[in-house]
Amino acid sequence: MAADIETTGVRCMLMRGGTSKGAYFVAADLPADPAVRDELLLRIMGTPDPRQIDGLGGAHPLTSKVAVVSPSADADADVDYLFLQVGVDEAFVTDRQNCGNILAGVGSFAVERGLVPGVAGRTSVRIRMVNTGSIATATFATPSFADGVPVVDYDGPAEDRIAIDGVPGEAGAVSLDFEGTAGSSTGALFPTGSVADELAVPDPITVTCVDNGMPSVLIRASDLGLSGTEEPSALEEDQELKARLEALRLAAAERMGLGDVSEATVPKMVILSEPRHGGAITTRSFLPHRVHTSIGVLGALTVAAGVLPEGAVGHELATVPEPGAPFVLEHPTGHFDVDVAVSGEPGSWVVERSAALRTARKIFDGTVYPRPRP
């Protein structure tokens, strides 16, 4: 790394991955020391500032994300992907969670940077998610080569294009197949050992603590005096609700073995209600303090796995699909279909399958210049 990085800049690709947007870097282009790296990323993203006016961040947690990608030494993976959530108005960088939306762009980025050779037609990249050690395989269109270099087709062939709610238009499908997500942060799909727990914070309320790639706490909307169809802005403005959810989050995290999460972004809090538009369940997902305008990939996989067993919070609200059919989660801007199968019995639940379709797009590729001073 050059000493005058403010002058030389850093090679960067800005990409939309799913319903998020982030800055993608090759690990070798960033400082090796995590503390130095994180300080640099704060300046690149324009944090702390609620508008992030002096950096790449988009003034929301969903657009203040970073992917750090490198060749993997793991025989089961092609590349390593470290996800970093960067604060917006608070100066923090955390690696305590994965991000499945940003993951949607990692395979394409790896091919574009020459970290993985492309295959004419479709390329599959096995990605080790460094945050938790689980593996995902991303498959996407690479229909042609230019001077021997594979070309990623973000638009995709016509028969391959899909629309995802929360993103305008259509783009080429990126299939994501996950391995080892169950309990990846907590050690078990239901880390408390039960599909439902009672928390008295301050009044008794039943929750489900679940981790299928994104540690989450599921709560019935009706138990909070909500319909479950509120707009994200209305939920964010309800200070009494936010205070109660934070108290519940801290208590649930202790039960889940996550310890003190007062400075962490996990577990997520997800409010559930019955479906209104033909899906399986309605969701409102907290990030944990802002409200997601849709729902994250790993969050969706976790909610689906969490409500499938009888006795779990939300099971009685859900219209559970037939085996093999997609589990459709309704969210503030539409729906998200995932493929999740769970089997077993109390104390030994197993996730048999976790998969989803996303899209991604390269927005720019070039050099980013960090703000020179904190």
From TrEMBL:
The keyword Isomerase applies. InterPro entries: OMA_tautomer-like, PrpF-like. Keywords: Isomerase. The keyword Metal-binding does not apply. It holds the Pfam family PrpF. Belongs to the PrpF family. This is 4-oxalomesaconate tautomerase. It comes from Microbacterium marinilacus.
